[in-house]
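DATA SHEET
Item: assembly model
Revision: 1
Owner: S.N.
Input lines:
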Amino acid sequence: MVAKPGLDGHDRGARIIARAYRDAGFEVVYSGLHQTPEEVVQAAIQEDVDMIGLSSLAGAHMYLFPRVVELLKEKDAEDIVVCGGGIFPEEDIPKLKRAGIKEIFTPGTPLAEVTKWVEENVKPRG
Amino acid sequence: MGIAEKITSGDVTAAAKLIRDIDDMVPEARAILKELYPFTGMAYVVGITGASGVGKSTLVDQMVTHLRKAGKTVGILAVDPTSPFSGGAILGDRVRMQQHSMDEGVFIRSMATRGYFGGLTQSIKGVIDVLDAMGKEYILVETVGVGQDEIDIVQTAHTSIIVLIPGMGDDIQALKAGILEVGNIFVINKADREGADRTVSDIKFMIEMGEKRYKDGWKPPILTAQAVYGKGIKEILDEVGKHREYLTSSKERQSKYKYEKTRNDLAEMIKDKIVYEVLDDIIHSGEFEEALQLIMKRKIDPYTACDNIVLKKLKSGKG
């Protein structure tokens, strides 16, 4: 699932990523804009996804991304892998990873790299 | 607690996982479907179909709002197309249904066609059974954007709604056979656009021409709506209610409907099972490739090759 949490209206990047996943053979649920972390997690559970890709360009990633991981734990769904993409200060990246975000993709990352990472690191859940 | 028991007590995670297994044709899922079957048959299934971009998802979203106000629980199955090139898909129907995402009385599931024609997915009946067994009172099934001939929804839903918009074609389109013949309710959405009256009268003309078919039965109503503004939704649900009343009010009609639906479902299921068992088996055993080569060399005709394979499988009792 490609999700846009928070007050962030810029989803061109998220759409391009969704399209790249589609072209790599994935089924991609797109959440639409302005989702709360609760909504993202609820949708991910209903859709039984393997991975959530969070997109944020508005600066609230330090709250939103870890919150998604936390809620997945609360719902016994921590086997869903969470990744993030967007614009982040360098120093936030290790913090996000410590909070349980498996990988962070920043501007300029080739699309093929993004989809390859998923192929190599996300195993379909049983 | 077993998986079936979890689902009948409304466990969202268990249901979501089972739906995925049904979609992936995992053999264990079938065993659970067998257990769930006694708990099905309560939900009312409404199909929403029409070309892409006519507003099906938005209409579904608005119908859910009304159904929830009336205290009904709702399951939504929204189908989007699979890419014939990559096998991937963008499932974007949730975008229009965001307002219901935190409502525990609503379960939304997106599905990809995975190469299945007819507007739905091969797994749809099993998935409907899961939502039904979960206790959802209404199940709204939104087809992929369809053209003229994808009429599976009629065999799947109790009431089928066909959504059109103004200006999609002249009255010749309304003469054609196919999807327009099978709708129980017609909705002209985006009715604030120019040409809405014309579309209404084209459809009306089409229905009037078929008067004989509707003589003792249900004559499809034509409604206008502006789903984005929530206009015309109550009227649509009123007609759904009337159609439901129509189906259930006469014992004879009810049993005829049930007979036809059961017959269709069983025939489809047998077809799927045969394809799954026979085709899978001969692909693995190499018989398929062998026959293919012989046909390519023109040593055998495809009709004989097919008959040989299928009859052999059926006789061996394995298929």
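QC remark: Chain B has a mean pLDDT of 90.
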